[in-house]
């Protein structure tokens, strides 16, 4: 997959891009609803004998349009989104910089630059996708704006248990620690990626050696608590228990961090990248009266998580 980072000003005739069928949207999470849009673009690309493409935006429009908002947190930060799309067999990923100049484009200007200017022959989007200044461009008026230069498909909402699958819904279930439901909506476990850094080494003194993660702050983190997780390291998956929280039994941290205890594993992971997949929330984080009470709870947590993974 080839990734192109674009601005309104960067699209010109010298840009070497083959004709494509493009799925367009922000696609945070690349969940099952998004996958329906992307799969339709792939099918049209195959039908027309052209490239498949996904057009997304960075950063999230809210960072630009909402006063005082400095950054956003994502279910799939851009790097992870790129990996998911590559695994789906997409040919092009168009990353459009969302800035004030983009937000000022009229719907027609947006179409002329980002669809016609990129040689798009077919556009696929969800029923609620909008574009152009103040979102005045809709899929309903896209045929009029295309002037016959490309065709389009609109994907109806994808539902699970009579509720629309959306990034907002996934954030809600993550807020409640319902990571199993997030997995159902995403079509894969919710995961985060980060580097293992040196911690306070307190875990090894109580029999639970942990790897502390340096988390990219772009991630939308689930509810604070203890989780059954799988740690992916160099292509191998290991069952583990994770604490996402601020360690209130000790001095406590201002920001939530993730530390994982990988079962039956004794390798040095410092400065190495790992992926943590969240499979089940075991309990909420709480303050214990002392180290012994904490150790007893961790033994119970490990037994419960080992049992959870025993038939999976």
Automatic annotation (TrEMBL):
GO terms for molecular function: ATP binding; FMN adenylyltransferase activity; riboflavin kinase activity. Keywords: ATP-binding, FAD, Flavoprotein, FMN, Kinase, Multifunctional enzyme, Nucleotide-binding, Nucleotidyltransferase, Transferase. The keyword tRNA-binding does not apply. The keyword Flavoprotein applies. It comes from the Bacteria. One of its GO terms (biological process) is FAD biosynthetic process. Pfam families: FAD_syn, Flavokinase. InterPro entries: Cyt_trans-like, FAD_synthase, Riboflavin_kinase, Riboflavin_kinase_bac, Riboflavin_kinase_bac/euk, Riboflavin_kinase_dom_sf, Rossmann-like_a/b/a_fold. It catalyses: FMN + ATP + H(+) = FAD + diphosphate; riboflavin + ATP = FMN + ADP + H(+). Residues 185-310 form the Riboflavin kinase domain. Its EC number is 2.7.1.26, 2.7.7.2. Pathway: Cofactor biosynthesis; FMN biosynthesis; FMN from riboflavin (ATP route): step 1/1; Cofactor biosynthesis; FAD biosynthesis; FAD from FMN: step 1/1. Catalyzes the phosphorylation of riboflavin to FMN followed by the adenylation of FMN to FAD. Belongs to the ribF family. This is Riboflavin biosynthesis protein. It comes from Halobacillus salinus.
């Amino acid at each position: 997959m080839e990734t192109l980072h674009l601005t309104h000003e960067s699209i010109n005739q010298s840009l070497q891009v083959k004709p494509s069928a493009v799925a367009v949207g922000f696609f945070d999470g690349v969940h099952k609803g998004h996958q329906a849009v992307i799969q339709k673009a792939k099918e049209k690309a195959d039908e027309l004998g052209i490239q498949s493409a996904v057009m997304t935006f960075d950063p999230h429009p809210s960072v630009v349009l909402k006063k005082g908002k400095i950054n956003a947190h994502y279910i799939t930060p851009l790097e992870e989104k790129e990996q998911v799309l590559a695994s789906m067999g997409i040919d092009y990923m168009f990353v459009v910089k969302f800035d004030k100049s983009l937000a000022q484009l009229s719907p027609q200007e947006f179409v002329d630059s980002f669809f016609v200017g990129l040689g798009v022959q077919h556009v696929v989007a969800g029923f609620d996708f909008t574009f152009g200044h103040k979102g005045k461009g809709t899929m309903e008026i896209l045929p009029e704006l295309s002037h016959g230069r490309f065709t389009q498909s609109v994907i109806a909402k994808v539902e699970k248990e009579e509720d629309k699958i959306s990034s907002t819904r996934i954030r809600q279930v993550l807020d409640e620690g319902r990571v199993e439901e997030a997995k159902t909506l995403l079509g894969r476990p919710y995961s985060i990626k980060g580097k293992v850094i040196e911690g306070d080494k307190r875990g090894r003194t109580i029999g639970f050696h942990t790897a502390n993660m340096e988390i990219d702050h772009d991630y939308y983190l689930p509810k604070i608590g203890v989780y059954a997780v799988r740690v992916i390291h160099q292509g191998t998956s290991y069952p583990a228990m994770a604490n996402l929280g601020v360690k209130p039994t000790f001095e406590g941290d201002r920001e939530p961090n993730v530390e994982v205890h990988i079962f039956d594993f004794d390798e040095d992971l410092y400065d190495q990248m790992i992926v943590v997949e969240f499979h089940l929330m075991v309990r909420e984080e709480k303050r214990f009266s002392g180290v012994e009470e904490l150790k007893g709870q961790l033994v119970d947590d490990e037994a419960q998580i080992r049992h959870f993974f025993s038939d999976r």
